[in-house]
Amino acid sequence: MAKLEIRELKTWVAGLVILLFAAVPIVSVLTDQAFYMAQYSRIMIYALAAVALNLILGFGGMVSLGHALYIGIGAYGVGMLDFHGVTNGWLQLLAALGVGGLFATAIGAVVVRLKGMTFIMITLAFAQMGYFLAVTLRTYGGEDGRALSSRSQMYLLDFANPVVLYYAIFACLMATLWWVNRSITSRFGMAIRGSKSNERRMLALGFPTFRYKLAAYVISAQICVVAGFLLANLTLYASPSYMQWMVSAELIIMVILGGMFTVFGPVIGALVFLLLEEWLSNFHSASFPAFGELVNEHWLAVLGVFVIVVVLTARNGVYGYVGKRGRTP
Known about the structure:
Blueprint: H1 3-31, H2 34-57, H3 68-83, H4 89-111, H5 116-136, E1 146-147, H6 162-183, H7 187-204, H8 209-235, E2 237-238, H9 245-258, H10 265-281, H11 289-297, H12 299-313
Antiparallel strand pairs: 1-2
Helix pairs in contact: 1-2, 2-6, 2-8, 2-9, 2-10, 3-4, 3-5, 3-8, 4-8, 6-8, 7-8, 9-10, 10-12
């Protein structure tokens, strides 16, 4: 199969997944199953966060175990202001992006100078600090978090309507994919990818790699803040659990599972991971009930085996199964 044909095939697969997302509300209304809309809203929110993480992980080589911190900041931007009677979604989002930007710039200025395990552990440490800080905020629910009084009021967008919220999430995901796809082939993207391959050579060529890497880290974090804002509106809840390191680990798994050398791979990874999570955790077998209970109880182990098989057999994850192995976006 020619390289051009592989790229076209991948484009068709991506198009079909996008059509699936776009059609979910229609199917949900026709079948009277609101669960589908909530489920795929969650999938797209995590896909948005995974695409953001992939900007620095897949293309920049920076393995962050702390991006859940920014999801939490986005969620608490809604929860805290809602507690004080501020339900204007634009103000909530602006406040969350402001705080998230400050945190990302301060943390990024430290971590992007580091490499390997040091980078991983320090991003994890900052995220855990954010988690324990949220736990101590008794006014806002402490360890249990707090329920929102209502969804954010966006004026032009009625988030109280699940269909409007769904398509707002869909639009954010599509806009982010478009931007990342354009960015990785720009000077900015080439500098990020070049820094991953050989930072010394990029410095010798006159590229200020620190600035590019810091910008990528901050942009990635801010997209996760938006994901957290949308997640709080979807669940009507702000919880410290959004900041747990396990959430960051799941995002990394989604990126690797889908394909971290591709733009659309993290979307496939989020889709496969969360659908498998739902299916395995509710697995039943009429013929072998004991086997069904075993899968229910140890579904994470089954999922882990699946991830290992994919990583060993396809360099670009599930998306890499489409045609040959390659670096096509």
